[in-house]
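Quick start: read one record
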Amino acid sequence: MAKSSKVIQSLLEKEMNVLRTTQVSALESTEGQANNNTFLGKRGKDFQFADVWPIAVDFLEFSAEEPQESQLSLLTSWLAKVA
């Protein structure tokens, strides 16, 4: 069963939270070493793609197995916008 773009976005945001927690813990265990890492998102808040402005992250529902004309036109217009 295919997942909607909102579900995929939510799953990716949760995974980014896990990665941030892991990275912070790793950095705390290596105190004293030079570090130029930038925190992704807003501190004290769960990760959301909306918080990485000015980088725009878009999600589009599309099926390569059964592409519909409306999906294909959305995809091509998005590609034209970002290219």
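The chain has one domain: 5-82.
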